[in-house]
Amino acid sequence: IVGTYKLLPEDPDTKPAVLKERLIQALPDDMEVKASGERPIAFGLVALVVDIHFDEIDGKQDELEEILGTIEGVSEFEALQLFRL
C-alpha cells in the first residue's frame, strides 16, 4: 500500500525538510518514504506531502498514523489517498 499524507507544521518556521527527516527516523524498517513534496498553505506555512509505502496488513495504517501523530513539530496530518501498488 502507498499512502499519501499531508503533514502540517506547528510553526511556519519549521521547514518541510526537517519534518521529512524526523518522519524517516520515526518509521520502522517495514515502512518507507517513497516520494515527498511541499505544498504552500497560507501565511508562510508550507505542508509536507509524502508517499509512504507499507505492507497491506491489518493495523498497519493505524500504526503509521500513530507514528505520524507523535512526530515533533507536526500539528496535524491528513490522509490524502491510499492505493495498492
Secondary-structure topology with pairs:
Blueprint: E1 2-9, H1 16-26, E2 31-42, E3 45-54, H2 60-70, E4 74-83
Proportion of residues in β-strands: over 45%
Whole-angstrom Rg: 12 Å
Q: Multimeric state of these chains?
A: single chain
The largest β sheet comes out as: 4 strands, antiparallel
| Run of helices and strands | EHEEHE
Please count the beta strands (DSSP E, at least 2 residues each). Answer: 4
Which of globular, elongated, flat, extended, rod-shaped describes the shape? Answer: globular
Helicity range: 25-40%
What are the low-pLDDT stretches, counting only 5+ consecutive residues below 50? Answer: none
* Head-to-tail CA distance between termini: 6 Å
- Quick check: average pLDDT? 95
Q: For the largest sheet, list the strands in their spatial order.
A: 2-3-1-4
Question: How many distinct helices?
Answer: 2
Going by helix content, strand content and strand pairing, the class is alpha+beta
